[in-house]
Amino acid sequence: MIGIKILKPRTGLMPRSYRRISTALGLALAIALNRIGNFKVKEACAWRGTPDVAIFRCDPVNIELGRHVNTDLAGKIAEEFRKKRWDGITITLNGELGKAKLEVDIDIYANEYVPLRVGITNERLEVLAEPRGYIDDEVIDNFYELFDLEYDNMRAVIEELTAEMHFVELKVATYTGVRTYTLSRATARIIALRNYSFTPEDTIPLWYRPWARQVARTLYTLTPPGLGRLVGHYGMRRIVRDIAPELRKYLERYYIVTLRPDENAIQLIPRASSPSTQNHRKAITELREILTEAMKKTAREGAKRIIQEKGYIDWQEYIETLEEELRQRLT
Amino acid sequence: MSDPRSIIEELIEKCLKKYDKTHKNKYEEYKGEIISKLFKAFGNPTNINYKCTEDPRISGTSHRVDAYIDTGTNKYALEVKLCLDTGVSLAKNLFRKVVKTLENLKINDMITLIIIIPEDHLEDAKNNLIKYITYTVNEYIAYIMNKNIKLGPDDFVIQYQIESPLMTVRPKRHYTDFLKMLQKYRIKEITLLPV
After folding, report:
1. pLDDT surpasses 60 at A277
2. What is the rounded average pLDDT for all residues in chain A?
3. Those residues with Cβ within 8 angstroms of residue A249's Cβ, 6 or more apart along the chain or in another chain
4. Which of A53, A195, A202 sits opposite B143 (nearest CB)?
5. What is the DSSP letter of B58?
6. Angle, helices A225-242/A277-297, rounded to nearest 10 degrees
7. Best mutation target, A90, A113, A120, A145, to test chain B (most B CBs within 10 A)
């Protein structure tokens, strides 16, 4: 699966603009797949409740994949979402990606809570793509494994997707006025999942924005809960911001990292090896060890040292000590 | 005629395990229990026929359940979710999977849907399955039957059975409407099998 999460600006998003972004992202993914593989729209149905209702009552949505995302079409669909009270659209693509014969369902949800509410995933998402198919005798049911089987094509798809995200500009209504955003500005996360599992080992990060914040989120889930809470979400964010150069170098060992400083974003693709997802798993396992060790040592020796020096422990010093520990281990 | 238990074992090896490479060790772990519980759930049959619906030659690129089983007295669709640690998606496209599988196999009868889950994730699985069914039922009744009925997750119960390890999902009210909907999806009943 490929999941996409939208980044809502601080000034908020009007519901219609929010759905316009979701729809445009779904279309961008379809176009990226179409450019690399050869995909055709088999059907596109809007549904209420769950996708299964569409078997008997499909509200057809007219979708044509052009060269680029048709922003007018995205606008029109967003309008219909409101009028007809749709909960989501499923676009089914049919085609080939390299040797793989695939059918891909791209779900675009009315809001991030739809998949959560009906029990599809346990994280909020706006777009979710699920492949189904085979290479010879081998069954494919997620994009994670496709990184192993069709590395070059998957890499190209992700590159095309980010290129499209930077090309498409949308007028977006926030609560402080109308702004023009590129799609990339409104995308928080793109991840490739194995069997809907959100554990870091099974989730390949592909696009993060703002990257420090998103990486901090992943790192927080990697730490043992008791030790993680000593630092907190805020502390983790601060650590990532401070040790960003070291962290980036670490990531570069396992991923092809494209940093976009103007957008505060990062694009990651696991390096080629056989299998390439192994690189990802290695990166995560090692990071988990590094974090746990550094945190244990800080809680053990670092904290003692701070108390001996100052007589009490404070957050600032604790975080700085942990940063130092992490820096040493990452390089 | 070979022993039904060995046929279930063969089904696990040749269908389920073969097409689910990431969970091979999970199958090893639960194999004994799956065999004995499935055998009991089928009502100690003397003969079992199965079809590997995951096989690309049968299903191609369409939605499918994990296996189809015919015991002579009853027909079953099997969906196995042994890893529910973090991912949910127990139920996404569950009904579509059944409809498409039966279409591909050209079978006109209705089936009993069995979802195999690990026992320690029973609560999660129950909640998510009921959530999904609630939304499907509500929209189906409103959209297709044109009735103004709303069920909430609390209106569904999981019914334990004395003689069988299967747990059936059923609503406390509007049972007929629920059954009518299941009939459309060609399902007799939706059951959970914790192992």
Report:
1. yes
2. 92
3. A330, A331
4. A53
5. H
6. 100
7. A120
Which residues 6+ apart lie within 8 Å of A29 measured at CB? A2, A4, A106, A127, A129, A161
pLDDT band at B1; cut points 50, 70, 90: low
Q: Which residues of B touch A37 (CB under 8 A)?
A: none
* pLDDT tens digits, one per residue of A29-48: 999 999 999 899 999 999 99
What ipTM describes this predicted complex? Answer: 0.89
Helix H or strand E segment including A151: helix A151-167
Residue spans per domain, chain A: 1-198, 211-258+271-331
Quick one: which of B82, B137, B78, B136 has its CA closest to B111? B78
Total domains in the fold of chain B: 1
Summarize pLDDT for A283-306 with one digit per residue, the tens.
999 999 999 999 999 999 999 999
Q: Which residue in A143, A140, A117 sits closest to A128, CA to CA?
A: A143
Owning domain of residue B86: 4-194
Three-state DSSP at B62 gives coil
Nearest to A207 by CA among A12, A32, A20, A11: A32
